[in-house]
């Protein structure tokens, strides 16, 4: 168990660190012709906002992932494989974040970037939901302690909520990237609200 969590934490830490690389310092040549450094920094607001949203999203995944692994006394091949797929999805989030921040205000490409951004969260959420469902519903023998039916429904249901949310965010991106942004902000706010302590960890 220790190796699984250590490897997972390492991948998540790298992904969350890579997000900051998109916050580039404007070159002096970019601030000539009266634009000024303050104006250039202000024009980078999509980068700041996308960074915060993705940082919180990956952080929430890390918290929930930690809780999921803490419920286990051992892992099997299915759990390891599903966890690996989840980590692969998390590792690509810095790229989709940078893509969305770059094209949000661009004259062309913003809609596709929004769909890709929300789509990456949808796929990541689907992978995490699969891991949670596998642990709670399909591999109860791997749990340290048995969960009640109510606890199992709460855990699975909270993860299931993300799937239609990010699917809607992706579809709204076809109309406006800002609608995608609004839904992603709302989803992050929802998952920042903690549930009962037992659901996270003992």
Structural summary, described in words:
The protein has 202 residues and is an all-alpha fold. 74% of the residues lie in helices and 0% in strands. It contains ten helices and no strands. The chain has helices spanning 2-18, 36-43, 45-70, 77-91, 93-103, 110-138, 149-160, 162-172, 177-192, 197-200. Helix 1 packs parallel to helix 4 and helix 3 packs parallel to helix 9 (177-192). The longest helix is centred in the middle third of the chain and has 29 residues, at 110-138. The protein is elongated, with a radius of gyration of 19 Å. It starts with a helix and ends with a helix. Residues 196-202 have low confidence and may be disordered.
| Shape label | elongated
The end-to-end distance, rounded to whole angstroms, is 16 Å
The total count of strands amounts to: 0
What fraction of the residues are assigned to beta strands by DSSP? under 5%
How is the main sheet built? Answer: none
> How many whole angstroms does the radius of gyration measure?
19 Å
- Estimate percent helicity: over 70%
Overall mean confidence score, pLDDT: 88
Order of helices and strands: HHHHHHHHHH
User: Unreliable stretches, pLDDT < 50, 5 or more residues?
Assistant: 196-202
Number of helices: 10
Coarse structural class = mainly alpha
């Amino acid at each position: 168990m220790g190796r699984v969590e250590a490897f997972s934490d390492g991948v998540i830490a790298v992904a969350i660190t890579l997000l900051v690389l998109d916050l580039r310092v404007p070159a002096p040549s970019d601030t000539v012709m009266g634009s000024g450094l303050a104006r250039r920094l202000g024009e980078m607001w999509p980068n700041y906002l996308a960074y915060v949203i993705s940082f919180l999203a990956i952080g929430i995944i890390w918290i929930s992932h930690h809780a999921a692994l803490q419920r286990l006394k051992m892992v099997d091949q299915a759990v390891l494989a599903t966890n690996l797929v989840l980590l692969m999805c998390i590792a690509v989030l810095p790229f989709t974040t940078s893509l969305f921040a770059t094209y949000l205000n661009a004259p062309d490409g913003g809609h596709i970037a929004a769909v890709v951004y929300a789509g990456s969260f949808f796929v990541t959420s689907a992978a995490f939901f699969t891991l949670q469902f596998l642990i709670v519903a399909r591999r109860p023998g791997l749990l340290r302690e048995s969960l009640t039916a109510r606890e199992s429904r709460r855990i699975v249901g909270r993860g299931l909520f993300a799937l239609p949310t990010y699917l809607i965010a992706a579809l709204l991106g076809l109309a406006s990237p800002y609608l995608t942004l609004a839904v992603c902000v709302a989803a992050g706010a929802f998952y920042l609200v903690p549930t009962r302590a037992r659901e996270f960890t003992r």
